[in-house]
Predict the 3D structure of the following.
Amino acid sequence: MLDLVIKNAKVFTPSGYFEGDIGVKEGKIVKIGDIQEQSDKTLNVQGKYVVPGLIDGHTHMEFPFMGEVTADDFYYGTSAAVGGGVTTIVDFVTPSKGQDLLSAYQKWRETADPKVISDYGLHMIIREVNPTIMEQIPEVINRGVMSFKLYMAYKGELMVTDGELFKLVREISSHGGVVGIHAENGEVINELVQEYIMEGKVDPIYHYYSRPDEVEIEAANRVASIASLVKGVTMYQVHTSTGEAVDVMSSYRSKGMNYFNETTPHYLILTLEALKKPDGFKYIMSPPLRSDDQRTKLWQKLSAGDIATVGSDHCVYSVSQKKRHKEEVPSFHEIPNGVPGTETILPLLFYFGVKKGKISMERFVEVTSTNPAKLFGLYPRKGAVVPGADADFAVIDPERKVKISPDVLHSNIDYTIYDGIEVEGWNVKTVRRGEVVMEEGQITAKNGSGVYVPGKSLK
Ligand code: DUC
Ligand code: ZN
Ligand code: ZN
Ligand code: ZN
């Protein structure tokens, strides 16, 4: 007797699609094909597209940053995730200044465990180097946190020096960890920010002018070069916003290095023009939104396979937080950086990517599920539709027309940066380890029903 059979599924994978039924027992896929066996529950998904549950490899829930803590806690944030067919998030443990890595990990687990609706994995941010931190890296990896994030920007808050970066890349790699990089030149940004402030140029668009394309491209070149000194390193640049930075990683990859890029939907959908709108402050994230030309390049590179993953960088601040609780919009440098995104990866990539003919369904699955699962040590438990894998699925109605608004989303804020955009194709059901956790916009799972999924190290 099976627990669940998904009937008449058209299932997309990185290598094509198949039509048939999927049998589930105890949260795992146990059978694929024409299933006649009895089951407790049947879902007929005729006419829909089934994809492996999305893995959003880039979220910041309850993230203390720039004087605010992000408004989506693990309950709201993972409700938004499953709303958008994301069955696993990988969130960034963020130690406070002076805190050791293991106590930060413990805090993240204790905060997330009682609240999560989706499953979750963790990355570790390292913001400073001291003997305790260096010593704890292997144990952090043992606990399933095999991917890290190092910042080349946010001087005084999260940025590490090039020397620290080198030291950390070497230590993380030697224990089979993966190094994520926020590549922006923090020193140059600081200079530009100070100059604009002195000149009284404080509107949101100056956030863009203070972080031009070149600061990302330079940092990408620098980190690629530094990391190439470390044998066997696996590195990925998070939230890549320029085609030139993607080219940097591709050129090292063609020399045999394991270098990858992640981009985010906002760089694929929006442009810097959004920062000039009356509510431009809502669109401040780093790296900033770019030109239409960069947006075109990113789509081309995504389609060509030069970008490995699409993660959301879900980092939500309410309007009041964005305005730092003032009436007037504050200077661009005081506005906390970050935008919502986990719930809209699927509809945006499906409509603007697949339906508009920019990427195939195979590529869609690869960048939203299979590749992040592989990169973060979750594969094949996650990111694969094979017997033995977790039964995680998003069920897409490819014809459903939806106008995006806060009303159709689950974050703990009352706006979306995609307000008014009409898409065709919407996630109508989310299955996480065999349980329907979202149906037609309703969250049907209990707080804390998601589990921590440890990532396996590369060693
Ligand atoms: N960029 C953001 O926009 N928010 C969180 C941190 C970051 O790097
Ligand atoms: Zn060591
Ligand atoms: Zn970042
Ligand atoms: Zn981020």
